[in-house]
Amino acid sequence: GAVVSQHPSWVICKSGTSVKIECRSLDFQATTMFWYRQFPKQSLMLMATSNEGSKATYEQGVEKDKFLINHASLTLSTLTVTSAHPEDSSFYICSARPVSGDRETQYFGPGTRLLVL
Amino acid sequence: GQNIDQPTEMTATEGAIVQINCTYQTSGFNGLFWYQQHAGEAPTFLSYNVLDGLEEKGRFSSFLSRSKGYSYLLLKELQMKDSASYLCAVMDSNYQLIWGAGTKLIIKP
Description:
The structure holds two protein chains of two kinds.
Chain A: E1 4-7, E2 10-13, E3 19-25, E4 30-38, E5 45-51, E6 57-58, E7 67-73, E8 76-81, E9 90-98, E10 107-108, E11 112-116
Parallel strand pairs in A: 2-11
Antiparallel strand pairs in A: 1-3, 3-8, 4-5, 4-9, 5-6, 7-8, 9-10, 9-11
Chain B: E1 3-5, E2 9-13, E3 18-25, E4 32-37, E5 44-49, E6 53-57, E7 60-65, E8 70-75, E9 84-91, E10 97-99, E11 103-108
Parallel strand pairs in B: 2-11
Antiparallel strand pairs in B: 1-3, 3-8, 4-5, 4-9, 6-7, 7-8, 9-10, 9-11
């Protein structure tokens, strides 16, 4: 089956530093990747949608200058949390929509847990 | 606005049956998903309904009524490993997933 990986799986960083999270589709190509954030006991919240070779579309309330998204290839998207603060501590999950397949199909990565001290 | 409602928490007994309901109001509809999420892990896909009716897959079944904006996930022969959160999500007219807050299912021996 289709596999999506995320790296790192967890990260602890100091306040003010930047953290990069990678999302890779391992055995398929993805035109679109989605970035979600999930706080404890809450649902997934879509942060942004990224399409290969174009700028990401951010959801209302998500700062595009703080959460930098790059989707440089059909198998890799990165999310960089710049100048991280404790309130950015969360579970970040990506999903990928295959090039070949229905628009309803998304495969989820295992998530990255970020803790900002 | 868009809204997905599901109970916050449910408790059931091992071996029993439980039904988790979900009601939704969204701008457009391109299907309803159920996901299972264990604590600290990403969601895993359980089912997808786009037409009215019941979809059965092993111990899990999912039902959809588009006219009522209603779905349920039915879990049979409950096992302890079924203890998890169950997320209802609707794909809207833009093919974006709108997520419910999840139902935490507690299974007791």
